[in-house]
Structures are given as structure tokens and as C-alpha cells.
Amino acid sequence: MQFEGVERPLRAVERAIPEPGPGQLLIRVQACGVCRTDLHLLDGEVEIARPPRILGHQIVGTVERRGAGGEDPLRAGEREPGEQPRRVGVPWLGWTCGECVYCLSGRENLCPNARFTGCDIDGGFAEYALADERYCFELPESYPSEQAAPLLCAGLIGYRALRMCGDARSIGLYGFGAAAHILAQVCRVGGEVADGMPERRVFAFTRAGDAAAQSFALELGAEWAGAAGEQPPEPLEAAIVFAPAGELVPAALRALAPGGVVVCGGIHMSDIPSFPYSILWQERSVRSVANLTRRDGEEMLALAPKVPVRTHVTVYPLERANEALADLRAGRFTGAAVLVP
Ligand SMILES: [Zn+2]
Ligand SMILES: [Zn+2]
Fold first, then answer.
1. What domains can you pick out in the chain, each with its CATH number?
2. How far is residue 267's CA from residue 33's CA, in Å, rounded to a whole number?
3. Torsions phi, psi for 177 (to 5 deg)
4. Nearest-ligand number for the alpha carbon of 268
């Protein structure tokens, strides 16, 4: 399902199966998650420099073949007869330069030369995809492919955002979609299970009147759910804003206790309206979270089965990708959408 231009539907096209180059895997896609970022790409809010492009950056699939000239040339080529196909996950971070100040300081998520899956590199809204093996993840075996796919962006970016909340014991989640439904489950565990993170209380903020999302949040362990403009029952130690609406930033600041942080988890957001300094005063802060590092991925994918995180997915056949995107935009499902070829 190919992106050909801003505000145009994805189009079903037949393409040749791509040839893996050195270090690349040819992956037969089993499932690919749909992300809010895909809507930003479709709308031109995040630019695709060189269309046509295949979107999709939460790919789960099996390795069909490995390009020659990788780190281990002996493993190049076809699988041995009888060998089990290896399953991998491919995230948004598709390639980094390894040489810049960010790559060299453990912040490859900020690499200015990075290439992103489903944006700069063809992604997983397809039957086959190529990926640089160094950026692929092993996936916990306990997850069927459809359930694993949303972990690869909603889960990983959510996890990075949660890390930015430090030791906050009460967290507001603004926008209860794919990422929040995973995080709410992670927040409820603490200590050894959660890599030393504290157990946290969750307060869910949804669109006004979205009873389905609010009851979904309560089912997943949130202790309170309300509309995004509402004040929570007590000031919160942190808030993560997943919805791409700038007016939620001052709303979240107003919900914070002194010293609290608002973390903006999306790649794009409408303009943030001006607000009085008094709601930032008392050492409150606002920050964003960008992309992921491979370390985030390894940590979250190890943590998910221990929680255990259960992803709620709505599965669409690949050729109905446009319907899945429209349903995401309209908030017609809870949890995450996944495309299956
Ligand atoms: Zn994403
Ligand atoms: Zn770099």
C-alpha cells in the first residue's frame, strides 16, 4: 500500500520483491502496526522527502533471506532446510550514522543523519520489507505477531516517555490510544519487574465524552478517567501528552504538582497556545521525546512479557490500510490497529 502524495489515499500496487543488500534482511511481513505518525505523514505534517514510499514502522515478520556482506557472511543466503524462520521486529529507527555527537553519546535517537522506517526507508504496509539487521529486534515469543506489532512504536516511544517522567508516582496520560494503553499496564507494576521503576498511579484523559476510551482506561488499571480539560482529583507528578493537540500542554501543566514534568510524546503537535508563567513556575517543565534508541527497544521488549503487557488490537487486512487510518483518525477503535498482509 503505497504513499504517493500528501492527502492522497494509499494505493495498492504490485512491486517486485526487494533484494537485500549487505547487512539487510528480507522480511516477510506478518503484521504491521498503524501509528498516529502515519497520519502526520499522510497529512504532510511530517515530510516524506522522496515519495513514493511504503509507510509502516511497527513491522513483525520472518527473515526470508539475509543480504551478503553483513557482519557474519556465513549466515548469508537462504535458510537451511528445516530451519525455523527467525522472527524479528522493525521499529521507526531504521539507520543512524554512528559517527555524530549524538550517536557517540548514547543518543542515536537524535542523530541528524538518521533514517526512519516507513518515512525515509520503505516500511511494512506491504508483504515484504527490507531492514538493516542492526536495527531489528528479537521479539518476546509469548506474543503473536499481531499483538507484538504495537509494542514496536506505541510501546517503545511510550516507554521512553515514561523514563522521562523519572520517579513520578502519579502520571496523567493525555490521549488514551495505542501508546497509553500499553503504558497504563507498565505503570501498574514496579520494582524488580519494572527495571527498578516505581509503581505508578494512572490518570487517563480522553476526548470529552469518549466513554469507550475512559472505561477502557479504567479496565487497564487507571484509577481515574476524565476529559482532557478536567482537573484530576489531585495534582499529578508527571503527564505524558500523546494526543497531537497543543492546547493539552497548558492543560497538563495546570494538572501538575510543583516539580512535575509534561512530556510530549508525539512527532507533531498543533501550536501550543500561550499560557501564564504561573503554571510553569515552581520548577514544572515541558519537554518532548523523540524517536527511540535501540537500548529503549531492548529494555521495553524485555519488560513487556514480564508485566505482562497485553495489547488490544483491531486487525485489518493490508488492502484496507486506508480504512484503518481513517478509523484511527476518528477514534473508532480502542487500543491499536494492525495490518496483516
Ligand atoms: Zn509510530
Ligand atoms: Zn549519528
1. 2-150+312-340 (3.90.180.10), 156-288 (3.40.50.720)
2. 16
3. -105, -145
4. 1
79 Cα to the center of ligand 1, angstroms: 31
203 - beta bridge partners?
172, 224
Is 60 within 8 Å of 145 (Cβ atoms)?
A: yes
Mean pLDDT of 306-332: 97
Which H or E run includes 2?
A: strand 2-3
Task: With a cut of 80, say whether residue 95 has pLDDT above it.
Answer: yes
Contact 134, 320 (CB under 8 A): no
d(CA 307, CA 185): 7
Ligand 1 centroid distance, CA of 124 (Å): 12
Cα–Cα distance measured from residue 21 to residue 133, given in angstroms and rounded to the nearest whole number:
11
For residue 245, the 8-state DSSP code is -
Task: Output the average pLDDT for the chain.
Answer: 95
Ligand nearest to the CA of 36: 1
Per-residue pLDDT at 60 exceeds 70: yes
What residues pack around ion ligand 2 (CB closer than 5 A)? Answer: 96-97, 100, 103, 111
Query: pLDDT tens across 116-169, in order?
Result: 999 999 999 999 999 999 999 999 999 999 999 999 999 999 999 999 999 999
Tell me: the pLDDT tens digits for 196-237?
Answer: 889 999 999 999 999 999 999 999 999 999 999 899 999 999
DSSP β-bridge partners for residue 27:
63, 129
CA 77 / ligand 2 centre spacing (Å): 29
The answer to whether residues 57 and 117 touch, using CB atoms and an 8 Å cutoff, is yes
Q: How far is the CA of 310 from the centre of ligand 1 (A)?
A: 18
Q: Which residues surround ligand 1, an ion (CB under 5 A)?
A: 35, 37, 153
Task: Express as a percent the part of the chain with pLDDT over 90.
Answer: 92
- Measured in angstroms, how far is the CA atom of residue 45 from the centroid of ligand 2? 24
Q: What is the pTM of this model?
A: 0.95
